[in-house]
Amino acid sequence: VKNLVQGAAVDFDSALVYNFTAADDSELFNLLRGDAKTDTVLIQAPCYTRYAVPAKDRFCRVLDRDGVTEVWLPDVRFYYFEMKFDKMLLNGKPATDLMRGNNGVAIRNKLNDYFTPYFEKDKVRKKITRDEATKSLMFYFMPYGVKLKVYMDNEDWPLPTVVGINKDVDEAIREYVGAK
């Protein structure tokens, strides 16, 4: 079970778009703005994040209660965040020269420090990761007729709908074709 859940880590490739102002962080704002006389700096950068259930955690357990297999897992954790600084745009212009300049390392560190807490609290990505971990357990247990309950962070986590596992394929096709 630990290997299944651990393999359900979710990586997100996305774009970070943020209007940065002096109120956010005046020191970083001045580094990003440079000589421009603007009140905001539009940051656009591809980024990569990873979330997973920490399956090596000692709080992972599997119980069989009254014919129902219960899997108890810790909550999803944020593991990694990386901005692609080589492709970052500031106010629509490449930031390559700024990032290669004297303040490049300081800017990278401050941007990482500024945006990491946002991704640590990202509820949408955490929900997607919970669903993926749950689906991996569903594919393992449910084809054998095992009734499954999943608990994450001591909360009963609802099983997502997976066609062919807990939803009939023909029914799903009828719903899809009928919806068009």
Number of strands: 9
Number of helices: 6
Q: What is the CA–CA distance across the termini?
A: 39 Å
Percentage of residues in DSSP E strands:
25-35%
Spans of at least 5 consecutive residues whose pLDDT stays below 50 are none
Task: Note the main sheet.
Answer: 5 strands, antiparallel
Radius of gyration of CA atoms, rounded to a whole number = 22 Å
The best one-word shape is: elongated
Structural class: alpha+beta
- Mean pLDDT across the residues is 90
Tell me the helix content: 25-40%
H/E order of the elements? HEHEEEEEEHHHEEH
Kindly describe this structure.
The chain has 180 residues and is an alpha+beta fold. It has helices at 2-6, 26-33, 96-100, 104-120, 123-141, 169-179; strands at 10-21, 40-52, 61-65, 68-73, 77-83, 89-90, 93-94, 147-152, 155-157. Strand 3 and strand 4 (68-73) form a beta hairpin. The longest helix has 19 residues, at 123-141.
Short description:
With 180 residues, this protein is an alpha+beta fold. It contains 6 helices and 9 strands.
Which labels suit this protein?
single chain; 180 residues; alpha+beta; five-stranded antiparallel beta sheet; four-stranded mixed beta sheet; 31% strand; elongated
